[in-house]
Every structure is written in structure tokens, then in C-alpha cells.
Amino acid sequence: MKLSTKTRYGLRALLYMAERYDGDRAVPVGEIAKEQQVSEKYLEQLFIKLRRKNIISSVRGAQGGYVLQRNPREVTVASVVEALEGDITFADCLSSGGCRNKGSCATHDLWSRLKDSIDGILEDTTLFDLVNKCGSGKEDAPGVANG
């Protein structure tokens, strides 16, 4: 399984915004696109999905752009993946339709445990966590507000 460019590029853009987060400063999409080497048009498409899930909001005007709607400590990677990809499913038997061979399938439990593990990691990881891993290594990365 491989996450699509939607998730990889969307997450990179959000991390860029998280590094500069101060609560209300909008980051222009052109700046994000240039710094992340991603098409501005493509980012706009991703940002539509992220806005619909209330992860970011747009600001119009000369100082316009996009801003995180919540502190980076509160935005989980799971919410980003879900906004951009939908639910991650490893096998059809784990989808909402269920599995008709659940009782006799030797791999059902494996796929279920794998999904639960990945979901747990994505739920436990926030933008703040990722900024700190890639950033200065300090407890409070530059540009990411405390609390």
C-alpha cells in the first residue's frame, strides 16, 4: 500500500503552515507551493478538501492565504489522511460492507490488527509532533505556539 501524492503533498503543506503557526497569520498558497515544490493548482485542490474538513480556512485580501483552524498540537495526521484519502483500508473485508468469510479467513485478523496499529499511530501523531521531529529538535519548535 502506498499513500497517494494527495496525502504526501497535503501533509507537507500543512507542516509548512504549522512551522509558521501563530494563530491568525495566513500563509499564501504561492509561498507554500514554491517552498514545497508543488504545483499551486494542485495545492488548491487539496486545500478544498482540507477546508471541507475544517483543518484549514482561507483568508481573502492582500494578506490572504490559508491558516490552520486549530493549533498544530490538535491536528492529527489521521484527520489529514481521512480528509485527503478517506478511510485507509488494506482489504475489502475491512470496509463497511464487512467480510462474508470472516469466520473462515486466516488473514482477516492480520489485516484488522495492521489497520488498528496504523490508525493508532496516525491518531497519536499531530502536526506539532512532526514539526518537532523535523525541526530544531527542541520541545517547542520555532513558529509553533505553545499550549
From TrEMBL:
Organism domain of life = Bacteria
| PROSITE patterns reported for this sequence | HTH_RRF2_2
Pfam families cross-referenced by the UniProt entry? Rrf2
Residues passing through the membrane, by range: none
Q: Name one GO cellular component term.
A: cytosol
Q: Which UniProt keywords apply?
A: DNA-binding
The terms under GO molecular function for this entry are: DNA binding; DNA-binding transcription factor activity
PANTHER family for this protein:
HTH-TYPE TRANSCRIPTIONAL REGULATOR ISCR, WINGED HELIX-TURN-HELIX TRANSCRIPTIONAL REGULATOR, RRF2 FAMILY
> What's this protein's name?
BadM/Rrf2 family transcriptional regulator
Species of origin: Aminivibrio pyruvatiphilus
